[in-house]
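DM from R.C. (forwarded with permission)

"hey, sorry to bug you on a friday — could you get me a structure for this? deadline for the figure draft is monday and I only need the backbone to look sensible"
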Amino acid sequence: MDAKMATEIFNTTSAQPESPQSWAYKTSQLQGALPDFLAEWSAWQYVVTFLVGLVLFVVLASDRDLAHKVFKSPAYAEPCLVPVARDIIGHKAWVFLQGRDHAEYRRGLVPLFTSRAIATYLPVQERVLDDYYNQFVAATKANQGKPMAFMTLFREINCALSCRTFFGDYISDDQVKKIADDFYLATDALDLVNIPLAMYVPFTKTWLGKRTADAVHRVFAECAARCKANMAKGATPTCIVDHWVLHMMESNRYRERVAAGETNLEKPKNMIREFTNEEISDTLFTFLFASQDASSSATTWLFQILAQRPDVLDKLREENLAARGGDRNKPFDLPMLESLTYTNAVIKELLRYKPPVILVPYLATKDFPVTPDYTVPKGSMIIPSCYPALHDPEAYPNPDVFDPERWISGDAESKTKNWLVFGAGPHDCLARKYVPLSLAGMIGKASLELDWEHHPTPRSEEIRVFATLFPMVSTGYSKFLLYALVRNLLTVITGWMQSGFQEAALVWHLAIWTSILLSRGRGTCKNKSL
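My reply, with the result:
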């Protein structure tokens, strides 16, 4: 058996299934039905797969209708991401639940993303953006106006936006910074090939990822406890956990009054059970896991594309200034964001043109007849791909052209079945309304307060997959990895001497990933001229 065939890839469409095939390695582009997610495997993963005798059968559902079928068939398939995901994210995480248990969680979470709730999250987001945009400008000044990498700042601003939206002031700046710095490790641990017991071997990627995830869980549980204490005093909700805890309190009061014999009571709109601090932590961790890389990807491409398209940026800037009555310092609110026709078209086109999530792995829980001619065997990984539907020329003419106008004067808005950015079915993204509004607030404010310039590298337009889509590193990956190792040797030695062996291993991994991510796209940023 050839080691490269240890994992079999089956690419299927509703028209005609094909024979099993190995994955073609081509990282320079995403072509139709074959996004290069699995092509990102390193050689050692193939070798280890062969040596430990693991054969993983992977089916790629690249057809739009088949993707919908997988998303909407909970009786046959469940989300799995990768085999080790449950160990990193949590075996009890609600995203892995099915049936009644999943519905119970989801019913309580949906009201946290209504327009009314989202409106209360915007002030803290404005505050985060103010802080980080000042950091963007300061970073460029400190670099004497020379081009610099912004990837880590983009990751950090998105981590701060998420954590503050989740927990408001219950989480400290230092905690947000540490989560932003360390969260690479949790994502990096999710290899498709799972080495048995690797999670218990010190300094492996899985071990480091698990430690990082556990640390975030502890912080989030502490924040949940602080929230419950604050809301018990009658505080006004300003973040996601506030609203969730308030709904728990309202439900508990209703049950207590019913138990006391009261009648003719108005039942709370969101009648839910009491969730423990750990359950709240587990749930908000899944939100962070879902948002961190996807939002960082969208932010990176958004700033890069608008720097390359001044015509689009000028229109967006004009619209945002008009919406503020000429006062560029006026804070945004929900009605304002919803009124920004062109800005929202830019966001939709970005998510179509460079979708952060190109596929979502599912596990077949039983033999799954995906077409009349082919049944996915139980235990196989079946992966619906979102990218082909979003680049279908029949739905979106000239799909490889960034054209926001297709959402205004064209008919793109009517192609709802192709709009798989947020998935579909019982596990679709709860934040499908929140995410575009948050991005609109971010880029609208940036357009009025900042000027930025993109300095392309030879590979800026190429794709590298790190959970989501990012611009490719600027040099050959293997050469750059060696460079990163050498460059960070002194950092590791310093960490070893100051913090001990265990912490030094963490510094080593972070240094490598920081260097890799820093090489993706360079720019300069300054305050917008009056």
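R.C.: lifesaver. The chain has one domain: 3-527.
me: no worries. The first helix runs from residue 43 to 51.
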